């Protein structure tokens, strides 16, 4: 069985915590920021933990050895 390749787009966007959860950047900070409230923009700073259903897909298909 050959080694599996990690998707290079995924390794730039996601990383794993020590307990195996997937950390990602918050969405919604690229464009059309005038119509978004200040509190929404403030909450979208930094990183967040991905939900379990999506994290399972990322770990299985895109980060196989992470």
Automatic annotation (TrEMBL):
Entries under SUPFAM superfamilies matching the protein: L35p-like
InterPro entries membership: Ribosomal_bL35, Ribosomal_bL35-like, Ribosomal_bL35_CS, Ribosomal_bL35_sf
Xref: Gene3D superfamilies: 4.10.410.60
Keywords: Ribonucleoprotein, Ribosomal protein
Gene Ontology cellular-component terms listed: cytosolic large ribosomal subunit
GO biological process: translation
Gene Ontology terms, MF aspect: structural constituent of ribosome
Taxonomy, superkingdom: Bacteria
NCBIfam families: rpmI_bact
Family recorded in the similarity comment: Belongs to the bacterial ribosomal protein bL35 family.
Protein name in the entry: Large ribosomal subunit protein bL35
């Amino acid at each position: 069985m050959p080694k599996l390749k990690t998707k290079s787009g995924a390794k730039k966007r996601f990383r794993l915590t020590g307990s195996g959860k997937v950390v990602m950047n918050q969405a919604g900070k690229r464009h059309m920021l005038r119509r978004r409230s200040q509190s929404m923009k403030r909450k979208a700073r930094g990183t967040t933990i991905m939900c379990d259903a999506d994290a399972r897909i990322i770990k299985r298909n895109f980060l196989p050895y992470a």
